Amino acid sequence: MLIKFIKYIYQFNKYRRNNDNPNFVVSFEYLYPRLADQTAITPIDPTYFFQDTWFANRILVNKPRRHYDIGSSGMTIGIISQFVPSTMIDIRRIGLHIPNFSFLEGSILHLPLKTDSIESLSSLCVLEHIGLGRYGDPIDPWGSEKAIKELMRVLKGNGNLFCSVPVDRECRIYFNAHRAFTREYIVKLFDGLELIEEKYIYGIKTFDEYDSSKGFGTGLYHFRKVIDEN
Known about the structure:
Number of domains: 1
Helix content: 25-40%
Number of helices: 5
CATH architecture: 3-Layer(aba) Sandwich
Shape: elongated
Distance between the termini: 67 Å
Radius of gyration: 22 Å
CATH superfamily: Vaccinia Virus protein VP39
Strand content: 25-35%
Largest sheet: 8 strands, mixed
Order of helices and strands: HHEHEEEHEEEHEEE
Number of strands: 10
């Protein structure tokens, strides 16, 4: 880092010596060193890159009249809201406002939504955190299970649910960061919903099938609530 800082000062002095643009003030007072941005490739988190593009495509294809999200990235839902009106629910407030985006303060364990009322619902990289205290929520070893039941409660018949969770060789607690699930346990927890699509992110690639031998990854799931004909 010291070498990078020396290079930074050298570049600043070179800029000042060669500066013939009178439209900008150049001063030591406004130094703002960014020393980690000279990289060979664009730094991007592959999990969020694949997850959010997959999710955006699912919303575009299904074209809901309104979408509801529980606790995902505010930036992602803000973008989605520009082509589908969206409401985000979280225990932490969002203090920003844009058209077609609304916010409700609430917990995924007690959603401020009626039973069987939501046509399109998402919760991306959220379920694995519930009950671990990371975001100020109460400690609860059954937090993920309770959250899933609540998502299923508010989803209406034929409604679509999009979620993602870490997957691994076995169900594990990486305290207090997150839990990881097996595919078998996730499918069991969403029993009663139809699994429409699943994708898995391992490293910098996506796969159509869960592979426990690959170890830690991320599962992307599209479920649909089956209407009880009885």
